[in-house]
Amino acid sequence: MKIKNFIAIFLRGFLMGAADTIPGVSGGTMALITGIYERLVHAISKIRFNFLKPLLRADLKSSIKTAKEEIDFELFIPLLLGIATAILTISRIISFLITYYMAYTYSFFLGLILASAYLVFNRIDGFSLKNLISAILGFIFAFLFVGLNPIQANHSLPIIFISGAIAICAMILPGISGAFMLLLLNQYEYMLKALARVSIPDIITFILGAAIGILSFSKFLDYLLKNHEAVTMAFLVGLMIGTLRLPYSKMAVIQSTPSLIIAVTIAIIGFFIVFLIEKRFHYIEY
């Protein structure tokens, strides 16, 4: 694999990982605007663990051969490294910013989400009533979803496992934030602290739940993208617009005019950053 391609995919993974630490922003959105989304969903859906059969027979050569045919290592290795690097580094920064600069931080998120929705909208070929209905349903679902109150769940390993499975399904969907799912499940701050203190049992349990969740959900999503792409994309645009309720509600605490001007400026900066990212990665081969 060429170093240039490795770095390009690593950077995509880093952006996905950074987005996945932010409540209201989806890693799937970053995958979409950087041009790797459909390849990622298809690559995940192809994994069927057939390489385990020869491995159980101690046939290592056949196992490796089957794994190479089944798993897109050139995609997954740099992508997962990028995601892990971002989560381990950005999570601390995001936690600090949300604690001390919540309104401004969510202003930035609002700009990111709005620009992402616009870019995804531009990918839809043609307008139809079916697409419009799909977008409206996505908007209603997301708008009601982000208005839910957090569930007072405990932090036992089974709950963390289930949370990982649910959150990863949201993370791969543009418009639905995996971090926000963790907020609803009362696991977001707990998992940030688990990462900070490197709590191995919690981290491994979460990863196992995420692995099972994404392998199951990706097959369904891959089918939708192959057979109903326009309707699926329209639904995702609706999801993104609906999730704007979250950052808007966090910005509503701003009372003074100078602070509001700063918040709007930050939102505009976030908006244009997404366009710069999309333009930069649009021309990178992977």
From TrEMBL:
Keywords: Membrane, Transmembrane, Transmembrane helix. It comes from the Archaea. The keyword Electron transport does not apply. The chain crosses the membrane at residues 73-94, 100-120, 132-151, 157-186, 198-218, 230-248, 260-277. It holds the Pfam family VCA0040-like. This is DUF368 domain-containing protein. It comes from Methanothermobacter tenebrarum.
